[in-house]
Design brief:
The complex is a heterodimer of chains A (436) and B (323).
Chain A: H1 2-13, H2 16-36, E1 45-51, H3 58-70, E2 77-82, H4 85-94, E3 99-103, E4 111-114, E5 125-128, H5 140-151, E6 163-166, H6 171-198, H7 205-218, H8 235-270, H9 272-278, H10 283-313, H11 320-344, H12 348-366, H13 377-383, H14 387-399, H15 409-433
Parallel strand pairs in A: 1-2, 1-3
Antiparallel strand pairs in A: 3-6, 4-5
Helix pairs in contact in A: 1-10, 2-8, 2-10, 3-6, 5-6, 5-7, 8-10, 8-11, 8-12, 8-14, 10-11, 11-12, 11-14, 11-15, 12-14, 14-15
Chain B: H1 3-12, E1 16-25, E2 28-38, E3 43-47, H2 54-61, E4 69-74, E5 77-78, E6 90-93, H3 105-115, H4 120-133, H5 149-158, E7 167-171, H6 179-194, E8 198-203, H7 206-212, E9 215-220, E10 223-228, H8 230-236, E11 241-248, H9 251-259, E12 264-269, E13 273-278, H10 284-294, E14 298-305, H11 309-317
Parallel strand pairs in B: 3-8, 3-9, 6-7, 7-8
Antiparallel strand pairs in B: 1-2, 1-4, 4-5, 9-10, 11-13, 11-14, 12-13
The chains are: A alpha/beta (436), B alpha/beta (323).
Bound molecules: adenosine-5'-triphosphate (ATP) and magnesium ion.
Chain lengths: 436, 323
């Protein structure tokens, strides 16, 4: 315990604690984040929806809400209710929102509400006419007009009186806002079409249905405007970040641990180790104290990488308890290997040189430098001979496959085994090294 | 412990007893059967040239390495790997400066004090005490890295005093420092001895050994070739003297002649002088000068000195303590 505190205190003073546990992980996370994440701007595309009418009724709100869902944007798109069009413009101007949609007064809208029905397969439909003028007359032209946006959703957005507002420097937001507008518009037309069908004097639904079908077939199907494709926002490159951050962090903790275990050799060269051995503290206590200090610092540094990538770049390493388990396993095993190298080195320089080479080899073999699955088959097997290979298996299950903590118990146990073996051998050797 | 208890114990048991220590590195024997004892309050000096095995003996005494044969007893108890508490009896001052340069003097001492089980107020008091003893009290909060060589040496000693050891073991504590710091260190150690601490001191400086130590052991090539008080050792050389002749010429030829004389124990030639140790000086001065003249050596001066430890060493080993 005294040795442990002394080690940490000295690391704190010579700044290696700060560098290894805070600064370096932060840098690492920043590099990874900017390379693979999209930065805080890409985190969310915020689009506002405002109603011209001060107090829109529930039906209108429902139409808009289903329209937003119909737009089918990824979760990174956030749609926010704004009280009126003027504040919407202000928010877009200030940058708080990237775009917006203004829904006009319902004089030109028709909404349809689905009432509660005892039989869910045949919902009771009640129509509300907001404005009699807007009710389409039963003509082929009217039916065509109603069906067109259903067949080609990209067309006719503006014709329905919806305004799309975007800030000029955000093409993504532009596309997202348009797709939301077109979703809302689609729902409005759908409602109108439904209402239209309810008000048909025809008693035979089959006749009406065939009319709808032929009219729909006569409308040319236009492709969805390419600007509405907003696929690239969100998940793609971020999963690379999710996986690469732990992968690089594992190599990083190896370097940190190697620097740490040198402390024993340094103390031997400096002569302070002789003082420790001459004291009533037993050699085992010395070794354990130092090892614990090194492992704690490594653990702190991997937690820092995790925290930073999650907070700044909204990385998702996967299940929290699983990640904790894998962090502990990685720290133990990488610390064990660093410790083993130290125990075989004759002096502090040799230890550092060997650690660098071994670290690089482990990283190459274990696959830390490459995206998952790129390694040829035999190397994938070889990677399981390295602790980082196992660490990556575990972190991959959590980050890429989104599996539970239980799925990493296997890799975690392998890592613990590796650390048990390496630390036992190293501790034996270092114990016998405790001479001046 | 009260004083009467202490005195009976002291009178019976030596603080340190080394019996027939043997240590081999690889195939080379480095310590070959060394035995000695240190009584309570006694200062014992191990005097010997580089590589004689002084540090090795000290490492065995402090339990850093274990001998192949022989035993170390501290206050009557065998020093083993297991018994860690026995180590509290020893204050070990390593030959090199064994401190953490990135820590302050105080932080260093606090750490070493904790190793010996000192805590809280007692620790603080002992740290103050040790700093005062070595005269570093006002620099206590400076980083050791910024200390001068002499100050580091003094702090190196302070770190061994915190737990008030019965036996202070110092391995060449004055190597490579200025005369002022050396005097201060010698004073510190002799004060501690006067207060009752036993001292084991290695050096290859004769002046230090003769000034500080009650008894001296002379080590050469892993064996203790003589031990006793300085007076005892000098009695060995009863009546012997050392004559130094300063001059120019073929001193080597002169030395060759002198070496063959019956009473001469040791001859040493330097640049412009020749040292002769012999068991009686009765007619050596006259013979030396006349031989010098005969061998065409220009004599500048002759000096006759009382024997000292250096001569003892020379007479015992036939070589000089420092080369
Ligand atoms: N760890 C070691 N391995 C091998 N040989 C050693 C080791 N330590 C010391 N020696 C050898 O043992 C001999 C005695 O060394 P030691 O350090 O005891 O001498 P010393 O009397 O303290 O000398 P000095 O006055 O230079 O300090 C030397 O020849 C040295 O080379
Ligand atoms: Mg030595």
């Amino acid at each position: 315990m005294i040795i442990y505190a002394n080690e940490l205190h000295r690391r704190f003073l010579d700044l290696t604690l700060l560098i290894l546990a805070v600064v370096a992980p932060l840098l690492l996370a920043l590099i990874l984040g900017f390379a693979f994440g999209q930065g805080p701007v890409a985190k969310e595309v915020r689009i506002g929806v405002a109603f011209v009418q001060p107090h829109p009724n529930a039906e209108l709100k429902h139409v808009v809400a289903t329209g937003v869902i119909a737009a089918g944007n990824p979760p990174s798109v956030q749609v926010i209710d704004v009280s009126n069009p003027r504040s919407l413009l202000k928010l877009i101007h200030s940058g708080a929102l990237l775009g917006g949609v203004v829904v006009p007064t319902p004089t030109r809208l028709v909404t349809v509400r689905q009432g509660n029905s005892p039989n869910p397969s045949r919902p009771k439909v009640t129509a509300h006419l907001e404005n009699v003028d807007a009710v389409p007359k039963d003509t082929v032209a009217t039916l065509t007009q109603l069906l067109r946006p259903v067949v080609s959703p990209g067309v006719g957005v503006q014709t329905n009186g919806l305004n799309v507002v975007v800030s000029p420097n955000s093409p993504d937001a532009n596309a997202v806002a348009r797709s939301i507008a077109s979703g809302i518009s689609l729902k409005i037309y759908e409602g109108a079409l439904r209402l239209y069908s309810l008000r048909q004097p025809t008693s035979n639904p089959a006749v009406f249905a065939s009319r709808v079908l032929t009219t729909a077939a006569s409308i040319p199907s236009l492709p969805i405007a390419p600007t509405l494709q907003v696929r690239s926002i969100g998940s793609g490159p971020k999963s690379v970040l999710d996986y690469f951050s732990p992968s690089v962090a594992v190599i990083f903790i190896f370097v940190g641990a190697s620097l740490g275990t040198r402390s024993i050799l340094l103390e031997r060269e400096r002569g302070t180790l002789a003082r420790l051995v001459a004291s009533p503290i037993s050699p085992t206590q010395i070794v354990v104290g130092k090892l614990l200090a090194i492992l704690s610092i490594s653990f702190l540094s991997i937690l820092s990488v995790w925290g930073t990538t999650v907070l700044l770049f909204s990385a998702n390493w996967g299940s929290t308890s699983g990640v904790l388990l894998m962090c502990i396993g990685s720290v133990l095993s990488m610390g064990g290997i660093a410790f083993l190298i130290t125990s075989f080195a004759r002096d502090e320089r040799e230890a550092l040189a060997v650690a660098l080479i071994v670290g690089l080899l482990l990283a190459l073999l274990g696959g830390n430098m490459l995206p998952p699955g790129v390694l040829p088959g035999f190397l994938q097997v070889a990677s399981l001979a390295t602790p980082n290979g196992w660490a990556l298996v575990g972190f991959g299950r959590l980050a890429l496959e989104h599996r539970s903590a239980r799925s990493v118990v296997g890799p975690f146990s392998v890592l613990c085994l590796i650390s048990l073996v390496t630390i036992t051998i190293a501790a034996k050797r270092i114990n016998s090294m405790m001479k001046p | 412990m009260n004083s009467s208890e202490r005195s009976t114990w002291e009178s019976e048991t030596p603080v340190l007893r080394c019996s027939d220590l043997h240590k081999t590195y690889g195939s080379r024997p480095v310590v070959k059967g060394i035995s000695f004892e240190i009584a309570p309050g006694e200062a014992y000096g191990l005097l010997g040239p580089n590589g004689a095995g002084k540090t090795t003996v000290i490492s065995i005494v402090c339990g850093l390495i274990y001998p192949e044969a022989g035993s170390v007893e501290l206050c009557g108890k065998n020093l083993t790997r297991r018994d860690r508490q026995l180590r509290k009896l020893i204050g070990y001052v390593p030959q090199e400066i064994a401190l953490y340069p990135e820590l302050s003097a105080r932080a260093n001492l606090e750490f070493f004090g904790r190793l010996y089980g000192l805590r809280h107020r007692q620790l603080g008091e002992r740290v103050q005490e040790a700093l005062t003893t070595v005269g570093l009290f006002d620099r206590a909060n400076d980083k050791v890295a910024n200390y001068s060589g002499g100050m580091k040496r003094r702090l190196n000693i302070a770190a061994a005093l915190l737990h008030r050891p019965r036996l202070l073991v110092l391995d060449e504590p004055t190597v490579g420092i200025d005369p002022q710091s050396r005097v201060s260190i010698l004073d510190t150690v002799s004060d501690l001895r006067d207060q009752g601490t036993s001292v084991l001191y290695t050096t290859h400086y004769i002046e230090e050994a003769s000034r500080l130590c009650d008894r001296i052991g002379i080590v050469d090539a892993g064996t203790l070739i003589a031990q006793g008080t300085e007076r005892d050792l000098l009695e060995h050389l009863d009546g012997s003297r050392s004559v130094t002749l300063q001059g120019k010429g073929d001193l080597d030829r002169l030395a060759a002649v002198v070496k063959s004389w019956p009473d001469v124990e040791c001859v040493h030639v330097s640049n412009d002088a020749i040292d002769v140790s012999c068991s009686s000086t009765a007619d050596i001065v006259a013979s030396l000068v006349s031989t010098a003249v005969n061998t065409k050596v220009q004599v500048h001066g002759v000096e006759v000195r009382e024997p000292n430890l250096e001569h003892i060493f020379m007479s015992l080993t036939g070589k000089e303590l420092r080369d």
